[in-house]
Amino acid sequence: MKLALWQQHALEHAKADDPREACGLVVVIKGRKRYWPCKSLSSTSDQFIMDPEDYAAAEDAGEIVAVVHSHPSTPPIASQPDLVACERSGLPWHIVNPKLEAWGSCEPSGYKAPLIGREWSWGATDCWALARDWYAEHGLVLPDWQRPLTPEQFEADPLFDRYWKDAGFRELDEDEELMLGDALLMNLQGQGLNHVGVFLGDQMVLHHVRYRLSSRDILGGWLLKCVGRRLRHDGFVRS
Prior knowledge:
alpha+beta, 5-stranded mixed beta sheet, 26% strand, elongated
């Protein structure tokens, strides 16, 4: 199959950045599709975080019509985080494997990641995204705070303790028992309260630890010791 010119340039970018994921945009400039390479700010090789300055420059140059990134070590099939981010972008996504020179794609279709067993990705499927999705399924829409560009920046200065009141939560008194739907702010071997989970009752918590799959775990032992604040949202209706 003959590649379009923008695909050829995207493939060259993917090969140059291998084994790290490359990312870029398809931009219509003067009536033609052009590949716009972007810098990835991710500290890991298996995810990308597109530099917002590059995205802004592409917007200034023309109309962005698609997102492109590479899967250097896996088939060019959209992952759970890819599908979630594709929904948020409202744009088609193209994926290329630079070794196989194979292509895949996905488009917004209403996809929602499962609450348990979802893959972790900063800003798309992380611990706050999981909490928001759980509450949304139970009729409560919470704000999606603007995150720092990278998870490392967040770890250095966690934002949960600054925003939970703005989201409508209140802190439980010491004598108040946990109930279904209470939020738990935790410190997972970091600086400050850098993690959030949702209490499900029966001493179980739903949460998503960085670089692991989201899970439902027993709130006991080490995990219980990590809890720094217990929060309740009075807008959450328990059936």
